[in-house]
TrEMBL record:
Phylogenetic classification of the source organism: Eukaryota, Viridiplantae, Streptophyta, Embryophyta, Tracheophyta
Gene Ontology MF: a single term: oxidoreductase activity
Classification via InterPro entries: Ferritin-like_SF, RNR-like, RNR_small_fam
Gene Ontology BP terms: deoxyribonucleotide biosynthetic process
Entry protein name: Uncharacterized protein
A Pfam family hit: Ribonuc_red_sm
Amino acid sequence: MDRCVRNVRGRLLAFACVGESSSPVASARYSGSRSAGLCRTHVFNELISRDEGLHCDFACLLYSLLNAKLSEERVREIVADAVDIEKEFICDALPCALVGMNADLMSQYIEFVADRLLGALNYSKMCEA
């Protein structure tokens, strides 16, 4: 198989991971700040979140059209790396608990989103969150 095609599969999956996992974390931060009245200028965050979701959906659609998909082991490895990076980010970004949001809850949500992504790609869940 051509090296470019092999790289496209992993890149599509990474693109889906970024769109799916980073937007909920950013949304939660802005939503928490907005509900506290701290960030009134972030009115377009919902549109950005929808856009990121569409990026993920598009990546999943393109991936589904590929004849040769990645092994489940490789997919889980890529998604697990994305989950670890997002959890590390959220723990650094939320060093102290906010009302209704803390690093543990966000970590659970990141795992839930990862399982949702795996389901959209027709792979079994990884985290069972």
